[in-house]
């Protein structure tokens, strides 16, 4: 039997704590129905017996504090809400215990932006991490030594599991259940809780927001100009001329500041504009593609699918009114 410690972090969301508790306990019920022994011993633990959550909106009473837990097998870090820097400071009392338990063999399951707290302990240094697309830029600024992953919602490295994107933590819990108890139990949990087990990527949900907390005035001006002209056709050289900077140096600065090359940034802005047109406009897909400056319809469809995992037609079916 694995002992699970779900951390009642201050300013965590009650839903992520309770969902983890309910799903893992329900798996024990499934095992009982099959005449098998329960696998998880699940409890919620905190720094104190009574913890305020979600800025005092909820309070939770726990049976044990972390000081009572000398050995645990798996630690669940819930989602945090609000000011991340403040939340890290508020919860720093958990850090030493978390680090000690990890080095003593405990696995760590970090739910979405709970990874801000995990990264603050240093345990994610030079490791892969998935994070919610809307928090990516802030996370990169705070933890530049963590390797952020874009193309999947789940990472699994050295006994640490992370996920990106709101309620995708439900998929992460299914993933962990599958590792512990096999595919059949994971599928059963998926069916019972009606969780789409095949969701693998954040791309269909992502809204592109360029990294702008960098202080480079020319790069920032070029970002704003690109974003304000999504239907214009221009080259990287034309942008460099407009900014009065040399191409080689500027491209290096742009990549360092934004995480994208200039050409990639232009692509992503045009894809984001196209998404909005597909959601609310009446033009055909081909008309929209021509509007954003592409003459090669197939080439743009490939670019669009690269960033959304959907064709323009499928995107319209999914998100239009």
Automatic annotation (TrEMBL):
InterPro entries: Class_I_gatase-like, DJ-1/PfpI, Homeodomain-like_sf, HTH_AraC, HTH_AraC-typ_CS, INH-QAR. GO terms for molecular function: DNA-binding transcription factor activity; sequence-specific DNA binding. Residues 220-318 form the HTH araC/xylS-type domain. The keyword Ribosomal protein does not apply. Keywords: DNA-binding, Transcription, Transcription regulation. It comes from the Bacteria. PANTHER family: ARAC-FAMILY TRANSCRIPTIONAL REGULATOR, HTH-TYPE TRANSCRIPTIONAL REGULATOR RV1931C. This is Helix-turn-helix domain-containing protein. It comes from Dyadobacter pollutisoli.
């Amino acid at each position: 039997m694995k002992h699970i410690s779900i951390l009642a972090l201050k300013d965590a969301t009650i839903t992520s704590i309770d969902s983890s508790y309910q799903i893992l306990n329900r798996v024990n019920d499934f095992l009982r129905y099959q005449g098998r022994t329960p696998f998880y011993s699940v409890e919620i633990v905190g720094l104190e017996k009574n913890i305020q959550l979600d800025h005092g909106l909820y309070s939770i009473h726990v049976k044990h504090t972390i000081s009572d837990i000398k050995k645990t097998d798996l630690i669940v870090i819930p989602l945090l809400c609000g000011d991340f820097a403040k939340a890290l400071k508020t919860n720093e009392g958990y850090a030493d215990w978390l680090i000690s338990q990890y080095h003593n063999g405990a696995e760590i399951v970090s739910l979405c932006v709970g990874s801000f707290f995990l990264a603050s302990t240093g345990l994610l240094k030079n490791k892969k991490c998935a994070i919610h697309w809307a928090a990516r830029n802030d996370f990169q600024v705070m933890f530049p030594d963590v390797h952020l992953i874009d193309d999947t919602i789940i990472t699994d490295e050295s006994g640490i599991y992370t996920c990106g994107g709101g309620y995708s933590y439900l998929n992460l819990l299914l993933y962990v259940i599958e590792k512990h108890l096999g595919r059949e139990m994971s599928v059963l949990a998926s069916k019972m809780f009606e969780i789409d087990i095949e969701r693998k990527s954040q791309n269909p949900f992502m809204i592109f927001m360029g990294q702008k907390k960098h202080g480079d005035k020319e790069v920032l001006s070029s970002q704003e100009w690109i974003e304000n002209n999504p239907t214009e056709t221009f080259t990287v050289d034309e942008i460099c001329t407009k900014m009065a900077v040399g191409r080689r140096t500027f491209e290096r600065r742009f990549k360092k500041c934004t995480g994208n090359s200039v050409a990639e940034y232009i692509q992503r802005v045009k894809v984001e504009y196209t998404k909005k047109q597909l959601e609310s406009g009446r033009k055909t897909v081909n008309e929209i593609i021509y509007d954003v400056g592409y003459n090669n319809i197939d080439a743009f469809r490939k670019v669009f699918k690269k960033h959304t995992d959907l064709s323009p037609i499928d995107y319209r079916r999914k998100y239009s009114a």
